[in-house]
Amino acid sequence: MFKMVEQIQIKLIEEEMKESYIDYAMSVITARALPDVNDGLKPVHRRVLYTMYKLGLFHNKAFKKSANVVGTCMARYHPHGDAAIYDTLVRLTQNFSLRYPLADGQGNFGSIDGFGAAAARYTEARLSKIADELLGDIDKKTVKFLPTYDNSDTEPVVLPAKLPNLLINGSSGIAVGMATNIPPHNIVEVIDAIIETIKDSDITIEELMNYIKGPDFPTGGIIVGKQGIKSAYRKGRGRIILRAKTEIEDKNKKRIIVHEIPYQVNKSNLLENIANLVKDKRVTGISDLRDESDKRGLRIVIELKQNANPEVVLNQLHKHSQLQVTFGVNTIALAAGQPKLMNLKEMIDYFILHRRRVVRRRTDYELKKAEDRAHILEGLKIALLNIDAIVKLIKASKNVEVANSELIKNYKLSEKQSLAILDMKLQRLTSLEQNKINEEYDGLLKLIKELKEILASEAKILEIIVEELNELKKKYGDERRTLILDGEEDEVIEEEDLIKEEDIVITISNSGYIKQTKLEEYKQQKRGGKGIIASETKEGDFIDNLFTTSNHGYLLFFTNKGKVHWLKAYQVPLGSRYSKGKAVINLLNLKDDEKVSAVLPVKNFNLKAYLLFCTRNGMIKKTALNNFNKPRLGGIKAITLKEKDELVKVILTPGDFDVVIGTRNGLAVKFNEKDVRDMGRNASGVRGVKLVKDIVVGMEVAKNDADLLTITENGFGKRSEMDEYRLIKRGGKGVINIKTSDRNGKVVGIKTVKDDDEVMFITKNGVTIRTSVKGISKIGRNTQGVRLMKLKDKDKVINVTRIIVNNGV
Question: H helices within 424-528, ranges in order?
C-alpha cells in the first residue's frame, strides 16, 4: 500500500495573487489585446486570416460558409469561443470599420446603424485581394512558426505583410493596465512616407508629415486642427477632433444635411442622441430629424425652425452630440513581444525592419531552392552526356539500390542526383527536352547569381522593398476620404463668433425666472411717463433684477454654497417683454440644496474691479474680478465657507465703496471696503462684523444720497439716512439699526433705497405687499420703526426686495 506524500507549499497570498495577476496581464497584453507592430494584427485576426489561407479561400475563389472558417479556426488555432472568432471575421469585412477590409463577405455582415451580422451559418466569406499581400510568401519560410495550443499543427508568429497594415487599418484594444487606439491612414500617403524613410533614414517626423497628412478614416469626416495629429505622431499620444461632414441648405426651408459621420459612431445612436438633445432643449432650433440614407450613401436631414441660425445650431450639435467626437490616439503595439509606445517614425522603422527580414529570408529560401534544382540538373546533364552507358548500367543492375550505388560510384553523383536520374522519364531524352534542361540550368545559374548579390547587399534588399511598395500603391492606392481643416486650434467655434454682438436686457424674477430681451423693445420715455411692463410674471412673482449687458458678456451666478456658475448672456432664452422666461435652475448645474444668492453681469474680466462677498456668519472677502475669468461647466468655488456658513451677498465694486452690513438682531456696521485686503479665490475672508449669537441678513452699498430700509419679521420697519451710520473699521459690533423687541421680531432684510423706489415684502405664507418707499417713515436708527405690513396669526415676513421699475431702460 503506497503512502501519499503531501506536496503543499506555504506561500503568502499577496505574493501568489501578484504573480498570478502578472501572468494573466502579460497573457492579455501579448496574446489578445495588442497588435504586433510588424503585421498590425492581433492573434485572433492573424489566425482567422491564416485559417482562410489554409482553406484556400482566396479572393478569386468561391465564397465558403463563415461557420466553416470559424469552426476550423477554433479547432486548429484559436482555443476560445466561436463568438469572438466570428466577430473578428465580421469586422474584417466591414468597410466602415476597416479602411482596407481584409475579407470579402457575402450576406448580412452588419451595418453602420449598429445592426449585428447574421449568424455564421447564413453568411459566406473569403480573403480580400489586399489580404493576399499580408499572406504572400508565407510558405517560403519568411516568418517563424510555433506549435498551436494542442501541438497538433503550427501557426505563424507574424505574417509576412507586404503592406504596412498597422498604419493603414489601425487597431484598438484594451489590455491590462494599458490600451491601444491607432487610427487608419491612406495607403498612398503611408507608402510614400515609407519610401522616403528608406531613402533617408534620418528623416524627421515633421518631414514625414509632409507625406502623411493625418489619419484617413473609412467613414470620412473632417479632422479639426492639426495639434492632435502632431502630438500623436511625435509622442504616440494625442487627441484628434473628428467632425461630421455637413452641408447647410437654405432653399425653401433651412436644413442641415449630414453626408458623413465620425469614425465608430453608430448612426442610429446618433439620431437618438440628437432627438434627446432637442427634447431636453440643450439644442434649440430643430423642427424635424430624418434619416434618408440609401444605397447611394449616408444622408441625415436636420430641418430647422424659421428663426433658427443654422451655424449656431450646427455648433450646438458639434458641442453636445456625436457629430463631433474626440479620437484619442494611443500608439501602443508589440515589438519583439513587448508592448511599446511608438511615434510615427518608429512604426515605419519597425515595418521596414520586418520587410528586410522577410525579403532576406525569402531570398535565402529561393536561393536554396534554386541551388537544389541546379544540383539536380547538373546530375541530369551528366546522365545525358553518358546516356547509353547509364541505360546499360541500370538494365544490368539487380535492383534500384544497386543501380543507385553504381551511379554514385561511377559518375561521382550525389544521392539526390542519382535518384533524379533513376526517376527521369524516357521523354527527357529527346533533343527538345535536353535543350530545356540546358536552358533551365543556365537560367538557374543566372538566378543564383542575382539572389546571392541580393543577400550580399542591403541596398538591393531595400530596392526590392521600394519596388514592391510602388506596385502596391498602383494596385490599391485611392483618394483620401477624411478632410483636414487648416489651423492649429482644436477647439470648436464658439457660438458667440456666430452671433452678432448687441446690447440686451436681462430680467430675473424673485422666484428665479430669467430671460433676455432685445433692447429695442424698450422705448425711451420722457420723465413722468407711465413706464412699460418688463415681464409677465406668475401670480406672486415679480422682477427684482433688471440690467442691460452685451449678449457676448458673462453672467456670474453666485450660490449660497459659495460657488460661482458662468453663463453667456446669449445663452439666456430670448423672450418678449410679456414672457416670463425660463427657470435659472434649468440653465445651471445646481445641486438640490443650492440656490442663487446674486447675479452679476461682466463683459470684461480685465477691468480693475473686485467682487465683495459677505456670508451669514459675518465673514467678508474681496477678490479681484480677473480671478473668475476661466468658466467651468460645473462651476467653481468662489469663496471657502466654514461649517454651517452660507453666502449672503456679492457686490461688484471698484474697490473703494462704503458698505453696510445688517444683522438679524438689528445691528449695522458701516465701513469702507479698503479695510479688506485683496484675497485669492479660495480664501475664506476676514471678519466683517463681530457677531454675538447673531447672523448677517444683508449687505448693501452705503450710498450717501440714499437711505437704509430695514424690515423685521413681524412686519415693522423704517428708513434711516445713511449719514446716521458712522464709518468705522470692519470687524466691529456696529450700532443699533432697529430695535428687535417682541413687537418687531428679528430683522429679515436691509436695502439701500431712494424715494422713487418700490419694495416688495414677502411672508412665509406667500403673501406679498408692494409699496412705494416714499410711504415708509424716515426715522432715526435707534427706534422700533412703524408697521409696514399687517400679518395674520403665525405668519412672518421672510424677505424684502427692491422692485425694478423701468421707464424705458
Answer: 431-456, 458-476
Whole-model pTM over 0.85: no
- How many angstroms from the chain centroid is the CA of residue 37? 25
Integer CA distances (angstroms), 307 to 58, 256, 284, 286, 303, in order: 58, 14, 11, 10, 12
CB within 8 A of 350, min separation 6: which ones?
37, 38, 335, 342
Cell of 716: 415693522
Q: Which residues contact 713 (CB under 8 A, 6 or more apart)?
A: 744, 745, 746, 747, 748, 796, 797, 798
The DSSP H or E segment spanning 45 is helix 43-54
Which part of the chain is CATH 2.120.10.90? 500-803
Half-sphere exposure of 671 (CA within 13 A, CB side): 21
Give ranges for CATH 3.90.199.10 in the chain.
13-185
pLDDT at 429: 67
Quick one: pLDDT at residue 391? 84
Residue with cell 452685451: 550
For residue 554, pLDDT over 90 is answered with no
Place of cell 474681496: 622
Q: What are phi and psi of 4, to 5 degrees?
A: -75, 130
Place of cell 494625442: 238
Q: Is 71 exposed, middle or buried (0-12, 13-18, 19+ CB in 10 A)?
A: middle
Average pLDDT over residues 35-61: 94
What number of CA atoms fall less than 13 Å from residue 613's CA on the CB side? 37
- Joined together, the cell numbers standing for residue 517 give 430681451
Rounded Cα–Cα distance for residues 7 and 54 (Å) = 45
Please say if the pLDDT value at position 680 is more than 70.
yes
- Residue 211: active-site member: no
Beta bridge partners of 189: none
Of residues 796 and 583, more confidence is placed in 796
Check pLDDT > 50 for residue 695.
Answer: yes
- H helix runs in 65-216, sequence order: 66-76, 82-93, 132-135, 165-169, 187-199, 205-208
73 contacts 66 by C-beta, under 8 angstroms: no
Residues 6 or more apart whose CB falls under 8 angstroms from that of 518 comprise 502, 504, 505, 574
CATH class for the region spanning 245-322: alpha beta
Q: How far apart are CA 185 and CA 353, in angstroms?
A: 20
**Helix orientation angle between 431-456 and 344-385, rounded to the nearest 10 degrees:** 150
Per-residue pLDDT, averaged over 451-470, amounts to: 94
Q: Which of 21, 24, 77, 122 is catalytic?
A: 122
How confident is the model over 735-782, as pLDDT tens digits? 998 989 889 899 999 999 988 888 878 788 877 788 888 888 888 878
Of the candidates 766, 761, 659, the residue with the CA atom closest to the CA atom of residue 708: 659
The domain 13-185 is placed in CATH, from the list 3.40.50.300, 3.90.199.10, 1.10.240.10, 3.40.50.10170, at: 3.90.199.10
Give the number of C-alpha atoms closer than 13 A to the C-alpha of residue 676, restricted to the C-beta side.
33
pLDDT in tens, 274-283: 999 999 888 8
All 3 cell numbers of residue 134? 499580408
User: C-alpha cell of 724?
Assistant: 446716521
Give the burial string for 216-240 (b: 16+ CB within 10 Å, else e).
Answer: bbbbbbbbbbbbbbbbbbbebbbeb
Average pLDDT, integer, range 599-611: 86
Cα 241 to Cα 324: distance, rounded to the nearest angstrom? 7
- Under a CB-based contact definition with an 8 Å cutoff, are residues 717 and 709 in contact? yes
What DSSP line would sit under 268-305, residue for residue? Answer: HHHHHHHHHHHHTTSS-SEEEEEE--BTTB--EEEEE-
CA distances from 708 to 728, 738, 778 (A): 17, 11, 9
**CATH classification of 500-803, choosing from 3.90.226.10, 1.10.238.10, 2.60.120.280, 2.120.10.90?**
2.120.10.90
| Alpha carbon 193 to its chain's center | 28
